[in-house]
């Protein structure tokens, strides 16, 4: 459900400044358990009404994967008071746009309207929560939509299976082991009642946070929230199951053949702690140090200087329970995947042995400051940050203070994190290669 926000992007950017300002907000709970966060920004005449639900791919039955993502589509089908096919027409005819997305940990829906349509956005999101119509025609329609999305973005996309293959090999008991888009066979086999039961269990006010951000009248907005969300009954209390993975103590080796590629890629992935931890933030800085831009250590060494690879990179795949630190490279010429891993390991050993230079460390801090400004430069980003920090981190004010945590990270901590998490016996080495039949036909 990746609808473009181009139409309002210029207006949204007016909500930012060249220098990050403290994000002010007010939060409270309705009696039904819905957490509400309000952020008034009078600088642009727009408002975003968003709801984030604490349900993602990890909350699914292993035999019914893909449900959370499926609902990202299904809940645009209509409600008791919004006829099927009318949702998007209603949004666009009132000068707005909407979107939704799903991760392993949560599902997020929002509308952006001119601020004089704040009430409309609130009513629509309350309708999605209180009066969804989940019937067979909607399920059948969205089943085909999801299948087409999978064909386009996963099955026929070069390197489209990379994250899924990493997860599958790194998690044995945790639900992170399956792809967010799930299994089409599972969706085909599901009954209408199973979809209705999933909605009843997870789409409740006490499993969600409502964020309203933009040019709003706080008192009036509270009155509308009470009017539309207050009558929604509290749902059942959800008990989240805890899954603990055994430590990785020896290198996991795997191969995946992708019929959509011509160039192989090698991946080294390490399981790391929850994104809520300080260590995860330190590893984020290590990722930036190694691979952020063409002046980063890995790119300059392996791509520019030694010309061993077409591309190298690293990123921290942050999640609520565990994360994955993923390094990747595409060898070129006579160089092999093993050659790239050797070069990467040399840089990691340097991190584990020596402190990075003061100059490199200052560069990291500058990048952190720039990212912080960019993340809070528009109403859309602020709204999603407020929801995420409440629902997944348990602290809304991290929207302002997370940068302070990053500022407090030391070079010594970076060295210790590299020692603790980035060792050869703690990782997956995935050879992501062209399918054999394709390679033989070249």
Whole-number tally of structural domains: 2
Summarize the amount of helix as a percent range. 40-55%
Percent of sequence in beta strands: 15-25%
Task: Specify Rg, calculated over alpha carbons.
Answer: 23 Å
Number of strands: 11
Shape type:
globular
Order of adjacent strands in the largest pleated sheet: 1-2-6-3-5-4
Structural class: alpha+beta
Strand count, sense and barrel status of the largest sheet are: 6 strands, mixed
Distinct helical segment count: 17
Structure keywords:
metalloprotease, signal, 11 strands, Putative zinc protease, six-stranded mixed sheet, Peptidase_M16, five-stranded mixed sheet, Cytochrome Bc1 Complex, Chain A, domain 1, EC 3.4.24.-, alpha+beta
Q: Can you describe what's shown?
A:
With 442 residues, this protein is of the alpha+beta class. The chain folds into two domains: 6-229, Cytochrome Bc1 Complex, Chain A, domain 1; 252-441, 2-Layer Sandwich (Cytochrome Bc1 Complex, Chain A, domain 1), CATH 3.30.830. 44% of the residues lie in helices and 19% in strands. The strands form two sheets. A six-stranded mixed sheet has the order 1-2-6-3-5-4, with helices on both faces. A five-stranded mixed sheet has the order 7-11-8-10-9, sandwiched between helices. Helix 4 packs parallel to helix 9 (218-229). 42% of the residues are buried.
Question: Care to give the gist of this entry?
Answer:
Belongs to the peptidase M16 family. The chain is built from 17 helices and eleven strands. With 442 residues, the chain is of the alpha+beta class.
């Amino acid at each position: 459900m990746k609808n473009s926000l181009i139409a309002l992007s210029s207006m949204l950017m007016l909500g930012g400044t060249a220098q990050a300002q403290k994000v002010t907000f007010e939060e409270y709970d309705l009696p039904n358990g819905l957490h509400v966060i309000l952020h008034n920004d009078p600088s642009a005449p727009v408002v975003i009404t968003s709801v984030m639900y604490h349900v993602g791919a990890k909350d699914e039955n292993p035999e019914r994967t893909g449900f959370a993502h499926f609902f990202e589509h299904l809940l645009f089908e209509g409600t008791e008071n919004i006829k099927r096919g009318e949702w998007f027409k209603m949004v666009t005819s009132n000068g707005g746009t909407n979107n939704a997305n799903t991760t392993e940990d949560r599902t997020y829906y929002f509308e952006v309207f001119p601020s004089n349509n704040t009430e409309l956005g609130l009513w629509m999101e309350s309708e999605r929560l209180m009066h969804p119509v989940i019937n067979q025609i909607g399920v059948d329609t969205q089943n085909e939509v999801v299948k087409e999305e999978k064909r386009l973005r996963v099955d026929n996309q070069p390197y489209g299976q990379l994250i899924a293959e990493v997860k599958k090999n790194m998690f044995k008991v945790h639900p992170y082991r399956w792809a967010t888009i799930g299994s089409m066979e599972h969706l085909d086999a599901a009954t209408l009642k199973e979809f209705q039961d999933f909605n009843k269990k997870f789409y409740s006010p006490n499993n969600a946070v409502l964020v309203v951000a933009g040019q709003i009248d706080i008192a009036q907005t509270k009155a509308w929230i009470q009017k539309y969300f207050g009558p929604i009954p509290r749902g059942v209390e959800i008990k989240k199951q805890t899954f603990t993975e055994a430590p990785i103590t020896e290198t996991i080796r795997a191969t995946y053949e992708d019929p959509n590629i011509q160039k192989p890629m090698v991946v080294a992935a390490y399981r790391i702690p929850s994104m809520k931890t300080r260590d995860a933030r330190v590893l984020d800085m290590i990722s930036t140090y190694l691979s952020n831009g063409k002046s980063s250590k890995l790119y300059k060494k392996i791509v520019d200087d030694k010309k061993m690879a077409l591309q190298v990179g690293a990123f921290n795949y942050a999640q609520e329970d565990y994360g994955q630190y993923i390094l990747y490279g595409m060898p070129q010429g006579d160089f092999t995947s093993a050659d790239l891993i050797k070069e990467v390991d040399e840089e990691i050993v340097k991190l584990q042995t020596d402190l990075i230079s003061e100059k490199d460390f200052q560069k990291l801090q500058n990048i952190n400051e720039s990212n912080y400004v960019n993340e809070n430069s528009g109403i859309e980003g602020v709204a999603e940050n407020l929801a995420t920090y409440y629902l997944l981190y348990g602290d809304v004010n991290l929207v302002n203070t997370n940068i302070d945590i990053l500022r407090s990270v030391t070079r010594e901590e970076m060295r210790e994190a590299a020692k603790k998490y980035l060792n050869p016996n703690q990782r997956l080495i995935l050879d992501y290669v062209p399918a054999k039949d394709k390679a033989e036909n070249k």
